[in-house]
Amino acid sequence: MLKKGGFVLSAGLVVLLMVALIYQIKNKYYLDILFMTFFWASLAAAWNISGGYAGQFSLGHAAYVGIGAYSTALLYINFHVSPWIGMVVGGLFSALLALFIGVITVKVRGPFYTLITIAVAELLYISAIQLKELTHGSEGVSLPFKPGWVNMTFRERETYVVLALLFVALIYFITKTMERRRIGYYLIAIRENEDAARALGVPVKEMKLLATVLSAFLTAVGGAIYAMYIMFIEPDSVLSFAFSIQPALMSIIGGLGTSLGPLIGSFVLSPLDMFLRESFSHINGLNLLIYGFLLVLFVLFWPEGLWPNAVRVYRKWRSGGVETKS
Amino acid sequence: MALKLKVERLTKRFGGLTAVRDVSFEVRDQEILGIIGPNGAGKTTLFHLISGFERPDAGRVFLEGQDITGKSPEAISRLGLTRTFQLVKPFGKMTVLENVCVGAFLRRSDLTDARAVAEDVVELVGLKPFADQPAATLPIGHRKRLELARALATEPKILLLDEVMGGLTPAEIGQMIDTIRRLREGGLTIVIIEHHMRAIMSLSDRVVVMHQGEKIAEGTPKEIAQDSRVIEAYFGGELRFA
Amino acid sequence: MLLQLTVSGILLGGIYALIAVGLTLIFGVMRIVNFTHGDLVMLGMYLTYLLYKGFGLDPYISLFIVPLALFLIGVLIQKLVVQRVVGRPHEVQIFATVGLSMMLSNAVLAYFKGDYRSVQTTYSTDTIQIGPVFLGVPQIVAFGISAVITLVLFLFLKFTYTGKAIRATTQNRISATLMGIDVRRVYTMTFAIGSALAGIAAVLLMPLYPTYPSIGEAYLLIAFVVVVLGGLGSIPGALVGALIIGVVETVSAYYLGSGWKQAAYFVIFILVLIMRPQGLFGQRGAEQL
């Protein structure tokens, strides 16, 4: 096991190395793939905090992506508020919504929680289309191209990729830190057995709320970064069901409730997604068809996901069948 | 001796069935109180009512004089009353030590402190060799000990043990009895539900007998063993101590 | 106007009832929330469309084919996927059926593209007037058939052996097994019947509305709203809930515009789950599973 300092150092080195690599890539398409991979990894890692650790299976995280994207974009074009601030405002709005959902769903469990999150996200989607004065409806919002750090707008695609990378690293760091603290132990305990956790004095409601609120905040920040990257948002581009399902899918395939799982899920699926879109653009929905198939396959046969299984195989190989501690 | 726990006329109905009817008893400081009764006598429901997992239809529960009726399980645990479950509920993917840490975090906010407490408790119940194994891999006997260890790590004043000896081998039962005795000597108050007659009769200072949701007798193990109502209702006229 | 809207809403609700009853039946028996249910309706609509396009079959003739096909598809889905997740954790059930739903809707998308497909019949726009109220012929037929099918289902559950076995399993899986009921077979029958009901609804919807690959999501959400309103697992609840939601839909579409009509039932859905999670007819605690 690495010491804490060692962990921060090695993680920092990995990030630095990746930044250096990013600037070696000149191909715009590859940079795009890389940005999307980091972006989806960040959404998956954020979803994983509530879905994986706290066992709150939301399929409505598109709502938070949308709030983050719209808050940032609308504050920017209407009031010239820097996206860096808009991003935080969007995060806070999302956190508030998550708090509201958390409070009204205290008594419902399982599929009903999932259904309410779907309904809330759908409500937001409908509102974004209908409230034309605020959101410009289906016409969407175009963001002006005025490069500069204050505007979070850059000439080079590399900068966006680095930004997305740093954001993933931040969420990973938060998750890792949580795992070493009371909150991490509590969340996993709740997921594993809620009654046993309560008997040991774990404040279940508060912990779940905390996890969903944090998850919502981070998801909205991710949405804001995405909006600044694509520079044009409309209900279908930031509030679609894909933003709800894909983070969940990536977490499950990578490993639910593990800090690395969602990242691995994204590293496997995002390039696959881009490849399918590029190579089979004449077949609509092929990527989602395959996603659906993978989802069914994994939950039926490998519900633990890639990462935990990989770790197990590695340990077995290294220690000749004796379980060791990470 | 000071009163630790007071249960006053607790009643719980599920539909037409009264699971617990008008049950009262008291537990004194550092006492071991045994609760026995045939299956379906309402023992586990009684624990649910005391520990906050079910809300009683009538009656009150006092912990050190404070009314805790209707409080949440987590609040009651924070006040110093922790229970275990008859059907063990390990956090399967966490290691034994991590399981126990969850309990220890109730009174320790720092991981280093919590681990220190957890390590002590794990050693006390004899799970040290398994500390780094995922809880899901433990055999049933060890799971029962883990259940006890987690509860102990919350540093309770009073411990409610629900059949911690079920499924254990005779040797393991002997160890468990020793452990429970030592805990009491260390200042704990313990209420224990148990089917294993010899264990409960040798451990308990007093025994409460339940039958069909009601308390039918209360007294020292000796008095209980000779109580004709208990023998009649519970043992069907035949009482043997092996 | 309100009378007109209410009557149209009730007629629409009749079709929703078929979808919702299937969903609630499956939940009651298997304790599984089936996220593919809307896609079963979608499949049924496309089948009806294909039969019409390929063989010139009138939707009402397809009524004898499509539900049967859906029944078989139901058996297949049950055996391949659903049977494996019965009794497993929520997330497994949710994501297995969500994944399956993605597969179905996107397979159709890949094959048919995203265009709207509809069936033009001579009677699609026929109306008759009763007092001050104008009613579409397909709506009336749909409601009539829905009512008959519901009655048949009711008699089936009440009097046949399979029906009784389904009800017994709903009440208590373990005692049903002890009484010698083949629970697996009951599951398969239930899922297949639920799918066939979705197929009937699909045929009845086809002369009224066009179909597209992601339409399942809309019907899934409607069915959920209905079932939650009526109480999960309760068939009478689903019937009443469906009529209410039908009326809510026509009334809100008229007063708020069709863009907002979905919003109305999402709001109802959320409100019901918060204020009366057991629904109008459901048992308390069902929502906590």
From TrEMBL, chain A:
It is a multi-pass membrane protein. GO terms for molecular function: branched-chain amino acid transmembrane transporter activity. GO terms for cellular component: plasma membrane. Its main location: membrane. It is found in: Cell membrane. CDD domains: TM_PBP1_LivM_like. The keyword NAD does not apply. Keywords: Cell membrane, Membrane, Transmembrane, Transmembrane helix. The chain crosses the membrane at residues 7-23, 29-49, 61-79, 85-105, 112-131, 159-175, 209-232, 252-272, 284-302. The keyword Transmembrane helix applies. This is Branched-chain amino acid ABC transporter permease.
